[in-house]
Amino acid sequence: MTTAPAKAGWRFRQPSVIPGFGLTLGFSLAYLTLIILIPLSGLVWRSAALGWTDFWAIAVDRRTLNALKISFGTAFLAAAINVVFGTIVAWVLVRYRFPGRRIADAMVDLPFALPTAVAGIALTTLYAPNGWIGQLLMPLGIKVAYTPLGIVIALVFIGLPFVVRTVQPIMEELDREVEEAAATLGANRFQIITRVLFPGLAPAIVTGFSLAFARGVGEYGSVIFIAGNLPFKSEIAPLLIVIRLEEYNYEAATAIAAIMLALSFVMLLVVNLVQTWSRKRYG
Amino acid sequence: MADPEIKSYGPHHESQSAAVTESRPVRWVAMGIALAFLAVFLLLPLIVVFHEALTKGIGAYTEALTSPDTRSAIRLTLLVAAISVPLNVIFGISAAWAIAKFEFKGKAFLTTLIDLPFSVSPVISGLVYVLLFGAQGLLGAWLKAHGIVILFAVPGIVLATIFVTFPFVARELIPLMQEQGNGDEEAALSLGANGWQAFWYVTLPNVKWGLLYGVLLCNARAMGEFGAVSVVSGHIRGLTNTMPLHVEILYNEYNAVGAFAVASLLAGLALVTLVLKTLLEMRYGAEIAATRGH
Fold it and tell me: How far apart are CA B244 and CA B65, in angstroms?
């Protein structure tokens, strides 16, 4: 109860009979500042101290550019795959009744719960040339492990729950009567799905895509095992940060991190804008 | 941000007229695609972990798990989770109390800041502490002069773990407490309870299942974190190796049985987490998922 109104008409907070505002807000802000804000601003400060020329030199370094391109490219592709299959999975889980549905539903959260390093070595073993899936793909001339395709596979695993868990609740709320009305008016099932259902789901799908994409860009643990980590070919940006750190090249590590952070912020902003827009439009 | 971890159970529509569902072949194809996708991408990796761990028999498996390095990795992982999870619980409750019980300026901004660690790459979460506490870091010289070791030691690992698990409890409790409103606490206060009593006897029982849900997810991530911890740990065997880092070391040494044996413990933890999570959702769905639709 420490914050009194500063001046008439402007209050920092609305009055309340509930105690503990000063204590809880004070502690939360102190903890947030110490754990998150000071370390993050340290990163910003260090990259600002680099100066524009040095920063730019690191940013347009061929290896940096390639790593960023690989990270963002594979994350985009994986998120796109997840949008297609994640939406089908969500639809099947929401609309169809079949034995084992609850188990399948619970399984969707596995990538949230399974440590990324475990996922990494498991996927690598599966897709290696002598692995269960790898040996099936080998005769077709498809190499997954130790190629950029392996990165995509790992990011599909990591990103799937983001799409399913964003789209699923919206699907559950879809109004059946609208579909029935469309059917009564002569629309066939395909038209109902594309013209009636899809527009309502689109914002959730976009949000799910952005969340999976953002997570994929920063992902490290599950990727480094399967990627092969060849510079210019299958080296992701987070790995390049680690490599620069191990070379004691703090400047380069900081600059790459700052670029990734800036791009993530832009994505976070887009997600929030899409959500605000969809809430306004679809309530 | 949308909460992908919260799921809801709407009313089931058992009676479906032909007009509002797909034809039978389309349903079978969709179901086939979805289940095949889940089997290949989720089930197979899980099975392969246990298969590889046990491929040389149960003896090799237990031997791998009882080696001194593995045991110290397990101990360190438990220690790190035992420090970082309670701290994030205290923060989560405190932040949820301030945000859900009061109206103040900048609340939306604060809520966004709490979610910030989720949009930062784990590697960057570790890097920020290296820049702060490392030999070339802002505080590096001062720490060295005072003989304080943070980086490449347990404090650094704990800090990085707190960073990546920071939002879990808070983001679970904030919407839940917002939905429950202040009525119960106001009643308790008007009956003569003090603030602590209102919290212990009214608020905490109201949010206990949501809190447990948040703790469950926070703990799973704390024990499984790899990227952030990898950057700050220094990978000293027997000293600063957590279980996920130990998995990496064993794997890179071509000790597949050892790597997958430790991995199987972590996969077991993930399965227990999923089972408990599903049970909580089935039993106390309404008391957990405050953000679900009406």
Answer: 14
Rounded-to-integer distance, Cα A200 and Cα B120, Å: 30
In a mutational test of the A interface, the residue from B119, B178, B215 whose CB has the highest number of chain A CBs within 10 Å is B119
CB contact under 8 A, A91 and B30: yes
A122/B72 Cα distance (integer angstroms): 23
Segments in B199-293 forming alpha helices (H): 204-224, 227-233, 243-252, 256-288
Nearest to B162 among A35, A114, A166 (CB): A35
Touching check for A271 and chain B: CB below 8 Å?
yes
Cα–Cα distance for residue pair B292/A277, rounded to 1 Å: 19
Mean pLDDT of chain B: 89
Q: Bridge-partner residues for A13, per DSSP?
A: B104
Contacts of A257 in chain B (CB under 8 A): 121, 123-124, 127
pLDDT interval class at A208 (50, 70, 90): very high
Rounded Cα–Cα distance for residues A132 and B214 (Å): 36
pLDDT at B13: 45
A150-154, A205-209, B222-226: least confidently modelled range: A205-209
In this predicted model, what pLDDT tens digit does every residue of B83-104 receive, in sequence order?
Answer: 999 999 999 999 999 999 999 9
CB contact under 8 A, B34 and A189: no
pTM for the full predicted model:
0.90
User: What span, in angstroms and rounded, lies between the C-alpha atoms of B24 and B52?
Assistant: 39
A219 in B contact zone (CB under 8 Å) = yes
ipTM: 0.89
Contacting A residues, span 81-140, partner chain B, CB-CB under 8 Å: 85, 88-89, 91-98, 102, 104-119, 121-123, 125-126, 131-133
All residues at 6 or more sequence positions from B193 whose CB lies less than 8 Å from its CB, including other chains:
B201, B202
Q: Which residue of B has its CA nearest to A251?
A: B131
C-alpha distance from residue B128 to each of A79, B81, B132, B155, B183 (Å): 27, 20, 6, 14, 42
